[in-house]
Amino acid sequence: MSLHAIEDLDDAYRATRALLLPIDRSLWVRLAVVVLFVGGPSLGFNGAQSSVPVDSGGPGEPFPATPPVGAEVWAVVATVVAAAVLIGLALLFVGSVMEFVLIEAVRNEDARIGTYWRRRWRQGLRLFGFRLVIGVLTLGSAAVIAGLVLLPVVVGGGTDPAAGLSVVALLLLVPVVVALAVVSGLVSGFTTTFVVPVMVREERTVLGAWGRLWPTITAHPWQYLAFVVVSVLVNLVLGILLGIAVAFAAILLLIPFGLIGGIGVLLFSAVESLGIAVIVVTALLFALALLVASALLQVPVVVYLRYYALLVLGDVEASLDLIPERRAAVRADGGAAGTDAT
């Protein structure tokens, strides 16, 4: 049995090369805009606790009362948190719609962002809702697991038996945590790589597309398992290469922006406000330039990964093929190249 996940690696490269070369600056810039959002934001909530040793004055004496926090402080905190959540949700929505824009771009080989946005924003809204539900369920499950681990310590008041029960609970729940992470990752990954193309191909909802995809998974489990394994390795390799490329771009950008920043430092000693302004503006422009460079460098990587998934999907189930013409073209070119080489 041939594994499409292995056979389609070269075809995805040829398809990516055919789309992106020769370089069309307009196409690359528009794809870079899509790439900025297509991964979706990471909605994570984390916190840090710190403690300062306090001399209670002796055993048995109560700790000093915590100073009350004013209503104005809580209002500021609530405003900042609400703004962060709203920005995160907005980015998640834009990223969800951009998933469809990207699929349409590689399908039609033309990144008309406005056209594809108007055509697919409703499906993007459904994907946004699905991702939000998956995220809430994952975070909620993680919170429940953390609560089960910490509950013995809280109830037992930090005694040794309570700590022992907490360790036992942690060991028992490790497989649950691993399973939760795997299931959540697979659902999210398959939704992005396979369900979105099915939604585009057959104009379905998220759940409808999952219902259409699931029989192909049960009929060809080894093909999808091979795709998961190969994708992990490919993403790892491409991630390392992309990180090196971005680091190199950052070094190159540091040369001119570092010189300008140095001028700002010199100005700071003479005119403090002007020096600060130059340094701040330079830092912002450097960050913006690095963001643009990073997006452009990610374009071939993201396009390759999408072509790879589309090729595998079409090979597993021909009726779900979104790129039959490009598939035939790259395989004809590949066959011709192989014949010439022999």
Automatic annotation (TrEMBL):
InterPro entries xref list: DUF7544 (IPR055966)
Protein name: Glycerophosphoryl diester phosphodiesterase membrane domain-containing protein
Keyword set, alphabetical order: Membrane, Transmembrane, Transmembrane helix
Parts of the chain that traverse the membrane: 27-45, 73-106, 127-155, 167-200, 221-242, 248-268, 275-299
Highest taxon of the lineage: Archaea
Keyword Nucleus: no
Keyword flag Ribonucleoprotein: no
